[in-house]
C-alpha cells in the first residue's frame, strides 16, 4: 500500500512539475485557455462623421438614442429587488403613451406564458421598430411621469445606442440623402449611407469601432489589478459642404409656401456663388425628411444633377452671348416678329402672331423665338453649336456628386440647331445651366460647380481633402459678359420685358424667364394651361452679381388670371431678397448701418456692467451669483445690433434663464460658458425648454432645448419674441 500510494504521489507530483515548467497540458497552452476563458472585450462605438454647412453648422451627425428591452425572467429578481416586469398591464399602459404600439400588443409582448417558462424561452424581449431609436426626450418623459407618480418600471431597460440625427427636417434632402442601420456580416447593426452624400461618401463617413480588453472572473466582473488594453474608436471623417444653412432654409421655407399654394408636380432651386462656383443652396420638391423618410417617393434622383430638361427660353442667354462675342448683335436693328420658316419647318413666337416689326433688343425682352432664328442666321448655326459646347452643355460639369447626366445637344439637322437656339429639343441639366451662367455673372470666367468644401479627420485634425474654386475655359470675353448682363437687366425693367414680375426690392437684377414644353412620352408634348416647365435664372446685383439663382416650377395649379411665371417669381424673389440681405449686400439707395461695438466688461462688477449694457439697448444675461465679470460673450469689440443678448459669467451656481426666442448660436455659447448638459433638438429659435427658468441647475442635470424654424413657428400660430438680428446681431 505504501509503495502504491507513494508511486501515485510521485507520479502526480511529476505531472504538476511538468505542467508548471512547460505551461502545457494535453498539448494545449494553459495560459491561452485561461485567456480565452477569462478575457473580456467591450466595444467602443465610433461616431459616423458629421456633415456640416460652410460655417460649421450641423446638417447630420450621430446622436444618443435608446433601444427598449423588457426583462421577463422572474429568476433574476429576489425579495429585495424586482428586476423583471411584474405588472404587465401597468407597464403596457405607460409605454403605450410613448412608443407606437397599443396597450393590448404591449401586454402580449411583455407577458411570459407558462409555455415560455416550461421551454425556458422569452426571458428577455424587444419591441421591433417601435422600440428602436427611442429619443432621449421620450426617455426623459417616461422618467418624469414615473417620478411624478413616485413609481418605478421594473424590468424595462433603455439601452444606449447611436442613431443618425438630421436636426433640420426637410433640408437639401436629395443632396444630403440619408443613412440607416443595417445588420452586417457579423449580425451587428451598422449605420450605412443609402442615398445622397451619405451614400457617396459612406466610406469616408464610416468610423472604426475601438475596444477595451480586460480580465474578469467567471461572472464577468473585472478582476482587481487587471490591466486594461484600450484601442480607441476612430470616428468617421467630417464633411463640410459649400451649402449655407441660412440660405438653404430660405429656399426650403419659400418652396414650402409655393408647394402649399400651387401644388406643382415638381420644383427645383439652386443658389450659387458665381465667383467660386460653390453651391450655397440646392433643393427640390417633392422632398422628404431624412430622419423618418416621410415623403420619399420612388424617385431617388437629385434632379439638379441626375435629370435632364428642355430649358426653354433661358438658353437664349447663351445664344445672345454668342451673337455679341461674334459681333453679330445690333440691338437697334429691326426684324419681323411672328413666325420664321426654315425649309419646311415653321416656328412661331409664344403669342403666335408676334409684335410686328421690332428691334432685336425688344425681341429679346419679349423672349421672341423668331429673333433667335434671325440671330442664328447671323452667327451661323455651326458656330452657335460651338459656343454651346464652350458653355459646357452636352458634357458633365464634373461636380463632386454621383450619376451626373450629360444632356443631349441636337446637332444633326439645321432645324435641330434652330430649335436649340431658343431652348427646345436639346436637353441640359440644371447644374449645367448654373455653370454656364457663372461665365455671364463672373465677367466671362466660367467656374466649375462644387458642393464639398473639405473633408477632415476629427481624430487628428488633419484635412484629408480641401476643395478650391476651379476655373474652366472662358467661353466669352469680359466685355461680352457685361453686355449680356445689361441686356438681361432690361428684361426686368423694360415695359414689355418678360421678367418684370421678378424685379427685386432694392436690388438690380439680370435674368431670363423660360417656358418649356414637357414631352408627353408619346412622341409629342403636353398641352393645356399650366402644363409647362416654367423657370427663371437670375443674378444680382446686376452690375456685380453675388448670387445666381435658378428656379424651376413644373405644372403648377394656376388660378384664373395667373400665368406660369407667377409661382416662379414668388419663389425667386423670396429666396434672392432674403439671401442678399443676409449677406449684408446693401440695397440701392441705402447707406450701410454701422452697428456699435461692445466694450470690455471683464473684471467689472456685474451689476454695473448690466446697468451699462441696458442703457446701450442690450439684454444682459448673468451666469453665476454675482461679483466681477470673469468672461463675457460676445467679446470686446464685437459689433452688436440693439436688443442683442450679452452673456456675463461670474462665480457661483447657474440659474437657468428663459431661452425662448434665443438663436441656436447663443444657446451654444451659453452651454460653452456654463458647462451645462444642454441638449438641442431642432434648429432655428428656441420655443421650449425642459426645465423652468429661474431654477438652479448643475452640470449633471440635462436640459433639453427645442428649436424651430420661423416658418414652422408661424404655421403653429406662434411668434418669436425677437428676430435673428435683435437676438444676436450676427
UniProtKB/TrEMBL annotation:
One of its GO terms (biological process) is cell wall organization. Residues 589-652 form the PASTA domain. One of its GO terms (cellular component) is plasma membrane. Keywords: Membrane. Belongs to the transpeptidase family. This is Penicillin-binding protein 2x. Transmembrane segments: none annotated. One of its GO terms (molecular function) is penicillin binding. Pfam families: PASTA, PBP_dimer, Transpeptidase. It is found in: Membrane. Its main location: membrane. It comes from Sporosarcina pasteurii.
Amino acid at each position: 500500500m505504501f509503495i502504491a500510494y507513494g508511486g501515485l504521489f510521485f507520479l502526480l507530483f511529476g505531472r504538476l512539475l511538468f505542467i508548471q515548467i512547460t505551461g502545457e497540458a494535453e498539448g494545449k497552452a494553459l495560459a491561452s485557455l485561461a485567456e480565452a476563458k477569462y478575457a473580456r472585450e467591450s466595444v467602443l462605438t465610433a461616431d459616423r462623421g458629421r456633415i456640416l454647412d460652410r460655417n460649421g453648422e450641423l446638417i447630420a451627425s450621430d446622436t444618443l438614442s435608446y433601444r427598449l428591452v423588457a426583462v421577463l425572467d422572474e429568476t433574476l429578481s429576489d425579495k429585495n429587488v424586482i428586476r423583471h416586469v411584474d405588472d404587465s398591464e401597468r407597464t403596457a399602459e405607460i409605454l403605450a403613451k410613448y412608443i407606437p404600439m397599443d396597450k393590448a400588443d404591449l401586454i402580449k409582448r411583455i407577458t411570459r406564458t407558462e409555455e415560455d417558462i416550461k421551454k425556458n424561452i422569452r426571458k428577455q424581449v424587444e419591441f421591433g421598430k417601435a422600440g428602436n431609436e427611442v429619443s432621449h426626450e421620450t426617455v426623459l418623459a417616461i422618467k418624469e411621469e414615473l417620478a411624478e407618480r413616485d413609481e418605478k418600471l421594473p424590468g424595462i431597460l433603455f439601452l444606449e445606442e447611436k442613431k443618425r440625427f438630421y436636426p433640420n427636417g426637410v433640408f437639401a434632402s436629395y443632396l444630403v440623402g440619408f443613412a440607416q442601420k443595417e445588420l452586417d456580416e457579423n449580425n451587428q447593426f451598422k449605420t450605412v449611407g443609402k442615398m445622397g452624400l451619405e451614400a457617396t461618401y459612406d466610406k469616408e463617413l464610416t468610423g472604426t469601432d475601438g475596444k477595451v480588453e480586460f480580465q474578469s472572473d467567471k461572472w464577468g466582473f473585472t478582476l482587481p489589478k487587471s490591466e486594461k488594453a484600450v484601442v480607441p474608436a476612430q470616428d468617421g471623417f467630417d464633411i463640410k459642404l459649400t451649402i449655407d444653412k441660412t440660405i438653404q432654409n430660405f429656399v426650403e421655407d419659400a418652396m414650402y409656401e409655393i408647394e402649399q399654394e400651387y401644388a406643382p408636380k415638381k420644383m427645383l432651386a439652386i443658389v450659387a456663388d458665381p465667383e467660386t462656383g460653390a453651391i450655397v443652396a440646392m433643393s427640390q420638391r417633392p422632398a422628404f425628411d431624412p430622419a423618418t423618410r416621410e415623403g420619399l417617393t420612388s424617385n431617388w434622383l437629385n434632379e439638379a444633377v441626375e435629370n435632364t430638361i428642355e430649358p426653354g427660353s433661358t438658353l437664349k442667354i447663351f445664344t445672345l452671348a454668342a451673337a455679341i462675342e461674334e459681333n453679330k448683335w445690333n440691338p437697334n436693328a429691326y426684324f419681323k416678329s411672328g413666325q420664321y420658316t426654315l425649309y419646311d419647318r415653321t416656328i412661331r413666337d409664344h403669342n403666335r402672331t408676334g409684335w410686328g416689326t421690332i428691334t432685336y433688343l425688344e425681341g429679346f425682352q419679349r423672349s421672341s423665338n423668331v429673333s433667335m432664328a434671325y440671330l442664328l442666321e447671323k452667327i451661323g448655326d455651326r458656330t452657335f453649336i460651338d459656343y454651346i459646347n464652350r458653355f459646357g452643355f452636352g458634357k458633365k460639369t464634373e461636380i463632386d456628386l454621383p450619376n451626373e447626366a450629360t444632356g443631349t445637344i441636337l446637332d444633326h439637322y439645321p432645324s435641330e440647331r434652330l430649335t436649340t437656339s431658343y431652348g427646345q429639343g436639346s436637353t441640359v441639366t440644371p447644374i449645367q445651366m448654373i455653370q454656364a451662367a457663372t461665365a455671364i455673372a463672373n465677367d466671362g470666367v466660367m467656374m466649375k460647380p462644387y458642393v464639398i468644401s473639405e473633408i477632415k479627420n476629427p481624430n487628428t485634425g488633419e484635412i484629408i481633402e480641401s476643395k478650391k474654386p476651379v476655373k474652366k475655359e472662358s467661353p466669352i470675353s469680359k466685355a461680352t459678359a457685361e453686355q449680356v448682363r445689361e441686356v438681361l437687366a432690361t428684361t426686368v425693367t423694360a415695359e414689355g420685358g418678360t421678367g418684370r414680375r421678378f424685379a427685386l426690392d432694392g436690388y438690380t437684377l439680370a435674368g431670363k424667364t423660360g417656358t418649356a414644353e414637357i414631352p408627353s412620352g408619346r412622341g409629342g408634348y403636353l398641352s393645356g394651361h399650366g402644363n409647362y416647365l416654367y423657370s427663371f435664372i437670375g443674378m444680382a446685383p446686376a452690375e456685380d452679381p453675388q448670387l445666381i439663382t435658378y428656379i424651376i416650377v413644373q405644372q403648377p395649379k394656376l388660378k384664373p388670371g395667373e400665368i406660369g411665371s407667377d409661382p416662379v417669381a414668388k419663389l425667386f424673389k423670396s429666396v434672392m431678397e432674403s439671401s442678399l440681405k443676409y449677406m449684408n449686400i446693401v440695397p440701392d439707395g441705402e447707406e450701410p448701418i454701422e452697428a456699435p461695438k461692445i466694450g470690455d466688461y471683464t473684471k467689472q462688477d456685474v451689476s454695473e456692467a448690466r446697468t451699462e449694457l441696458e442703457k446701450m439697448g442690450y439684454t444682459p444675461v448673468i451666469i453665476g451669483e454675482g461679483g466681477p465679470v470673469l468672461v463675457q460673450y460676445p467679446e470686446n469689440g464685437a459689433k452688436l445690433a440693439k436688443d442683442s443678448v450679452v452673456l456675463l459669467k461670474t462665480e457661483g451656481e447657474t440659474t437657468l434663464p428663459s431661452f425662448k426666442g434665443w438663436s441656436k448660436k447663443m444657446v451654444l455659447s451659453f452651454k460653452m460658458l456654463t458647462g451645462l448638459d444642454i441638449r438641442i433638438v431642432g434648429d432655428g429659435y428656441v420655443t421650449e425648454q425642459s426645465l423652468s427658468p429661474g431654477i438652479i441647475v448643475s452640470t449633471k442635470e440635462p436640459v433639453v432645448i427645442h428649436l424651430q424654424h420661423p416658418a414652422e413657428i408661424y404655421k403653429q400660430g406662434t411668434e418669436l419674441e425677437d428676430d435673428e438680428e435683435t437676438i444676436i446681431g450676427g
